[in-house]
Specification:
Layout: E1 9-14, H1 18-29, E2 34-40, H2 43-52, E3 57-61, H3 69-75, E4 81-86, E5 100-105, H4 110-127, E6 132-134, E7 138-143, E8 146-151, E9 155-161, E10 164-169, E11 173-177, H5 180-186, E12 192-196, E13 199-202, E14 206-209, E15 213-216, E16 219-222
InterPro entries: CheY-like_superfamily, LytR-like, LytTR_DNA-bd_dom, Sig_transdc_resp-reg_receiver
Domain HTH LytTR-type: 139-207
Domain Response regulatory: 10-121
Length: 233
C-alpha cells in the first residue's frame, strides 16, 4: 500500500456482514485522511493484518465469528484506537478499559460516522503531538507523559541514532524516540538544513563550512554525498 501525502491514518475494517463492511468502506473512502489498508470478516485475519500494517484505527464489529470483538482486542499488545460497530446496545460498558473511541449503532448514519472519526483524529493529534509547532519559534517534544518545550533558536543540530534523535541545544541535549525524518518534516527549511542522513543543522549556527563538512559549536559534522547537491546556504 502506498501512502499518498494526504492520507495520514491507516485503518482496517473487521466486519463479517458484507453489506455493513461495504457501507463502512464507502464512508472511509470519502475521507482523505483515512487510508483503508484491509478489511476482513474475523479476528484471526484481523490479527494478521495488524502484524503486516501499521494500523492506527480499527472499525470493529463485536459480533464476530469464533472470537468475539472484545476478546480479540484484549489479546492485542498496544491495540490501535477502535471504533466499535454493533447492532446491540448492551456492549458499551464492557469496552471502558479498552481504547474505544466511539460506538456506532447499525445501521450507521454517515453523520455519526463523521463524529466518530472526528473524535479519533482529535485523539491521534493529542497522542501524536510529538511535534506541536506553536508560533513557529519553538517545538514541543513528547517525552513519556511530559511535553518539553524547545526554542528553535537554541538548537545547534539534531543527530540521529537509529530510532532515536538527540537535539543538541545551548542548555542541554534531549534524546527522544523519533525518526529524524519526522522532526525534519516539522522544521522550517529556512532555519534548518539536512546535511546528512544523520544530521540536521541550524543554519544560523554554522561556524565553518567546506565542501564536506560543517562546523557547529566546535563540532565538525559531515555532509552526506546524497545531500551535497541539495544544500544551498
Amino acid at each position: 500500500m502506498t501512502h499518498s501525502a494526504s492520507k495520514k491514518y491507516n485503518c482496517i475494517i473487521v466486519e463479517d456482514e458484507p453489506i455493513a463492511a461495504e457501507i463502512l468502506e464507502n464512508f472511509v473512502s470519502q475521507d482523505k485522511e483515512l487510508n483503508l489498508v484491509g478489511k476482513c470478516a474475523d479476528a484471526v485475519y484481523a490479527s494478521s493484518l495488524l502484524s503486516i500494517h501499521d494500523v492506527d484505527l480499527i472499525f470493529l464489529d463485536l459480533n464476530l465469528p469464533v472470537i468475539k470483538g472484545f476478546d480479540f482486542l484484549r489479546k492485542i499488545k498496544n491495540p490501535p484506537f477502535v471504533i466499535v460497530t454493533t447492532a446491540y446496545h448492551q456492549y458499551a460498558l464492557e469496552g471502558y478499559e479498552l481504547d474505544i473511541v466511539d460506538y456506532l449503532m447499525k445501521p450507521i448514519p454517515y453523520s455519526r460516522f463523521l463524529t466518530a472519526t472526528g473524535k479519533f483524529k482529535h485523539l491521534m493529534e493529542v497522542e501524536d503531538a510529538l511535534l506541536e509547532i506553536a508560533d513557529r519559534d519553538h517545538i514541543f517534544i513528547s517525552s513519556g507523559k511530559k511535553q518539553i518545550r524547545i526554542t528553535l533558536q537554541d538548537i545547534f543540530y539534531i543527530e540521529s541514532l537509529r530510532e532515536y534523535i538527540s537535539i543538541h541545544t545551548k542548555a542541554e541535549t534531549f534524546t527522544i524516540k523519533m525518526p529524524i525524518s519526522k522532526i525534519e518534516e516539522s522544521l522550517n527549511p529556512n532555519l534548518f538544513l539536512r546535511i546528512h542522513k544523520s544530521y540536521i543543522i541550524s543554519r544560523s549556527k554554522i561556524e565553518v563550512k567546506s565542501a564536506n563538512m560543517i562546523q557547529i559549536n566546535g563540532k565538525k559534522l559531515p555532509i552526506g554525498r546524497t545531500y551535497k547537491p541539495l544544500i544551498e546556504f
